[in-house]
Design goal:
The structure is a single chain. By secondary structure, the protein is α/β, with parallel strands linked by helices. The chain is 59% helix and 12% strand. The protein has 20 helices and 11 strands. Strand 1, helix 1 and strand 2 form a beta-alpha-beta unit. The longest helix is centred in the first third of the chain and has 41 residues. The two termini are 38 Å apart. 31% of the residues are buried.
């Protein structure tokens, strides 16, 4: 339930608001009531309500001062609704500049407050969902940044960003740990400090969703490291009831070493995990003396373009050409696997950038084609790449369509909030990076009205409320809801409502007498 704090210097008003409004129906519960500014300030900071409903005239300091102080003192201030008499109307309008969502004129109309609570409840839930999504995207950004470094990008800005995000000095001593199977990630993320309480610098998931850790190792002894990774491996194997492999790199210096750290652990996975399955493997315990010819990533450039374009039919021939090239130049299976691993990372990055989720896609792909490290010949590796690229092409196309839907939703939300201001379709199209003609088409498809029709209906609905509850002149009402021309407002009002604004206003006045 969302929490609401009610502030008014009249006890009977507090009692009425608490008992006569069906808060639970709109997902709220009254968490507190206050009669003055200081009490309200203390209660809000302690209870952290989602919504504060406050009168303007309260003792010690007024409602606007309360809002200002809460906005300054709270990391996440609540939403605010102002209660005011008609005499405070102009005064209350200034509150709309301070995270105030609405003001209600006393005496409060039941229908008006219910409509308001319904709207604010939706806004708060959308904000909560947006914050969670933002945190998820932030985690994706961090993981993507580390992935860029382990793939070999050596741009100084990226190194500095990584060092800042992981809170490590640029020359810090680091080591890496890679953990397989991918299902270990869900268990690990909440309990990492149980194994490495002071040294953890960052974590990531690679293209195969293997979980990776970066540790600051300057003050981490070999015995402590060995004890930690052994306990980690044993606990995971017991909980997952399947073999778990933990690969530990050598100690290196600075964020620029992340690529070499990762490649060490990946090489151990290829050499040890495939044959021995579970266990703890230290790179310092063995060296791979063989030199492998590396795959030039430009080999996959054309294939990636086919995937991004959604050209499913061209993927298979493109993959055949790539593997014919491998055969002619006698690349080893391990070198091809490393090249495909880089291709996987690139595809996963493209999907993540479009707000997609890679774990499910990769799990489905592995169920159908097997894990990359277990494929020991060109034929199975070729099928693996073809299947992966077809799956990624379809998913990327779906994400593009979904993102277009999200964009029009954001446009409509923006219009709903800013309809009182001057809005033009061309300007909105530029703001949301869309073609204006296309935006007009999808706006009508989504709302059932053209942009101008939708905007005028929003403004007229707001005008009806002002005509019903205030003594403002028709011209002032027109200006407040976004019409710069009073005659145009009157004409649109009559077309939509069926009567002139003056007739509507007088009929409502008669009902109230």
């Amino acid at each position: 339930m969302l929490k609401v704090l009610i502030v008014d210097d009249e006890p009977w008003v507090l009692e009425g608001l608490r008992t006569m409004v069906d808060w639970e129906r709109f997902g709220f519960e009254v968490c507190g009531e206050a009669l003055n500014g200081p009490d309200a300030l203390r209660m809000a900071e302690r209870l952290k309500p989602d919504l504060v409903l406050t009168d303007i005239h309260i003792p010690v300091f007024n409602g606007l001062e309360l809002i200002t102080r809460l906005n300054q003192s709270m990391v996440k201030p609540p939403r605010f609704v102002i209660l005011s008499g008609y005499d405070d109307f102009q005064y209350a309008r200034t509150a709309l500049r301070q995270r105030v969502d609405q003001y209600l004129l006393k005496p409060i109309d039941d229908e008006e407050i219910e409509a308001l609570l319904s709207r604010i409840s939706l806004m708060i839930h959308n904000e909560i969902a947006s914050n969670l999504e933002r945190q998820k995207k932030q985690a994706m950004i961090v993981g993507n940044l580390i992935n860029r470094l382990i793939q070999g990008e050596d741009d100084e800005d990226i190194q500095l960003m990584a060092a800042n995000l992981m809170n490590i000095p640029t020359d810090a001593e680091l080591l890496g740990i890679l953990i397989d199977p991918p299902s270990a990630a869900a268990l690990l993320q909440q309990h990492l400090k149980d194994y490495f309480p002071c040294e953890l610098a960052g974590c990531f998931q690679d293209s195969a969703d293997r979980f990776g850790l970066i540790l600051q190792s300057a003050f981490l002894s070999r015995d402590s490291l060995t004890a930690g990774v052994n306990r980690l491996q044993q606990d995971l194997a017991e909980q997952l009831q399947e073999p778990v492999a933990v690969m530990v790199s050598e100690r290196m210096s600075g964020a620029l070493s992340l690529k070499d750290i990762y490649l060490q652990t990946l090489e151990m996975w290829k050499l040890k995990y495939r044959r021995e399955k579970g266990g703890v493997f230290f790179n310092s315990d063995f060296r791979n003396s063989s030199k492998e010819l590396s795959i030039d990533q430009e080999t996959f450039t054309e294939l990636l373009e086919k995937v991004k374009a959604g050209d499913i039919q061209a993927i298979e021939p493109c993959v055949r050409d790539i593997f014919m090239f491998y055969t002619q130049h006698l690349f080893s299976v391990e070198a091809v696997q490393a090249g495909i691993a880089h291709l996987e990372m690139t595809l996963c990055r493209l999907i993540t950038e479009r707000n997609g989720e890679t774990a499910g896609m990769m799990n489905q792909h592995h169920e159908e084609f097997g894990n990359l490290g277990e494929l020991g010949d060109y034929f199975r590796l070729g099928s693996y790449v073809s299947g992966l690229c077809r799956r990624a092409a379809v998913y990327l196309a779906e994400l593009q369509e979904a993102n277009e839907g999200n964009t029009i939703y954001n446009v409509i939300q923006y219009v709903d909030l800013e309809f009182r201001n001057k809005l033009q379709l061309q300007e909105l199209a530029r703001q949301f990076h869309m073609n204006s003609a296309y935006l007009g088409q999808v706006f009508r498809k989504e709302t059932g009205r053209s942009f101008c029709e939708y905007l005028n209906h929003k403004r007229i609905e707001a005008a009806k409320g002002l005509l019903k509850r205030t003594e403002l002149k028709i011209s002032d009402v027109a200006a407040q809801v976004g019409f710069s021309n009073t005659d145009y407002f009157i004409d649109k009002f009559k077309r939509i409502v069926g009567v002139l604004p003056s007739v509507y206003k007088n009929s409502n006045n008669c009902k109230q007498r």
